[in-house]
Amino acid sequence: MDYADKTWIGKTVGQIAKERGEDPVDTAIHIQMNGFDRPGGIQLRAFAVSLLDLEEFMKKDYTGVCTDRQGDTPELRENAFVHPGTFATTTRLLRQFVFEKKTITLPFAIRSLTSLPASILGLRDRGRLAEGARADVVVFDPEKLRDKATYFEPFQFSEGIEQVWVNGTLVVDQGKATGARPGRVLSRQHAGIGI
Length: 195
Fold this sequence. Notes:
Helix content: 25-40%
Order of helices and strands: HHHHHHHEEEE
Number of strands: 4
Distance between the termini: 34 Å
Number of helices: 7
Structural class: alpha+beta
Shape: globular
């Protein structure tokens, strides 16, 4: 949580309500009405979905994985309120739910990370390896693949990502950024798939 009263950062709404001697609903309203001078008044992380729910969602063939994170930038590092998924969504999905728990298969996970989201967003030349498609490719070592980011220390890169190509340009080599920046903002190319 990020809030004008810094003594509340890191606490749950329930903990703050107990301190204030009131119902958590009243506390949530107070926080919203007396927080930052911007829409919402507060930044918080809601833990509304259980791990069991997530596992059920990821088994559905129409579930694309959220990959709408921004890259690591000096501006991002100035914001202490960064979700660990910014650095670990894909590696956690593969390590925990493919290789360890075997909730889904590797091909199923790769589709949910690549061609399905591209199709949903109407990006015809992305998300698959095919002639005429943009060469966006990630090479990883399944044995070394590990996510390290946490809610309290989100700025930690995952391990085991060997190479990454964006638009056919090598941007990560032997786990290190090359400095190349061939990416661009993408726009919807058509209505996408019907689900």
